Amino acid sequence: MKTVLIATDYSSAAKNASKYGIQLARILKAKVILLHSYHIPVLATEVPVIADFDELEKENLRTILAEKKLLDPQMELDIECISCFGFVVDNIIETEKLYKPDLIIMGMRAVGVLSEYLLGSITTTLILRTKSPIMIIPEHSEFIPPKKITFACDYNLNPNVDILMPLKKLVEFFDSKMMILNFLKQDHTVGSKKAKMGILVENYLKDIAHTYYFEEEKDFIDGIIHFTGKHDTDLIALVPHHHSWIHNLFKGSHTKRLAFHTTIPLLTIPERDQD
Fold first, then answer.
1. pLDDT of residue 217
2. Could you tell me where the DSSP H helices lie in 130-210?
3. Tens of pLDDT along 129-173?
4. What distance in Å separates the CA atoms of residue 193 and residue 156, rounded to the nearest whole number?
5. pLDDT tens per residue, range 194-251
6. End-to-end alpha-carbon separation of the chain, Å?
């Protein structure tokens, strides 16, 4: 991995994710893009007053440069700071198009229903629209080299298994133990499509250490959390599907729920490749 994009809003969860991302980038020897999005505040007075844009721009630049210094006081890493006006989702997507990062890192906190909805909406939208893998770091997660990675796989994957390249590279770099987890219904017969995909995945991952686990189907989230706790997992990886996990945001998605109910970092891998 050559480039890591870290999105921050300076919240405690974002700061924790930034620290995680910096430690990961240091080990990977990757360039870091540190991105912050801001809006023009409207002051609460009898007559609405809009803050001076030029000064606001300068203040946000000073803030992100100070954050860079805190994250890398010895200036050991190549960190490029971007502070830009606009909506966070749009800015992340535009930055992704420009830099084509190998990984996007962002924090996640669970503090009540409203923040879950708002933060979950941003994360879910990014998973749907970006072409880069996204690593979601729960607020209280500390950086641990991912020696045990659980890949929750239902074998309904893009026939181009090269989409798993980011996951494969992580496993190879950290010499990780990869556990491929699949939930089956009782008395379930594997169809020809899934069987074929299983063969493709096996051939693609043949050079790295991996073990298959087939669990009887249960609640998807509870099942993963139970499995990862039992097997001391350091990272959960999955490929979210548009039709079943992301499309209906108001009813939530497996990906969103999982991010709020585990302290283990979550890596989501897009089903499409970068241009």
1. 66
2. 165-174, 192-204
3. 899 999 999 888 999 999 999 998 877 666 678 889 999 999 999
4. 8
5. 777 788 888 889 999 899 998 876 677 778 888 888 999 999 998 886 544 444 433 4
6. 17
Tokens representing residue 264 in the block:
């283990």
DSSP 3-state of 17:
helix
Q: Is 169 helix (H, G, I), strand (E, B) or coil?
A: helix
3-state secondary structure of 161: helix
Question: Which residue ranges form the domains of the chain, and what is each CATH number?
Answer: 3-138 (3.40.50.620), 148-268 (3.40.50.620)
pTM, two decimal places: 0.86
3-state class (DSSP) for residue 175: coil
User: Residue 49 is encoded by which pair of tokens?
Assistant: 């007053």
C-alpha torsion sign, points 60, 136, 119, 124:
positive
Identify the three-state secondary structure at position 11. Answer: coil
- In a 13 Å sphere around the CA of 87, the CA atoms on its Cβ side amount to 8
Q: Is the pLDDT at 188 greater than 80, yes or no? A: no
Which residues neighbour 155 within 8 Å (Cβ) at sequence distance 6 or greater? 182, 194, 197, 198, 201
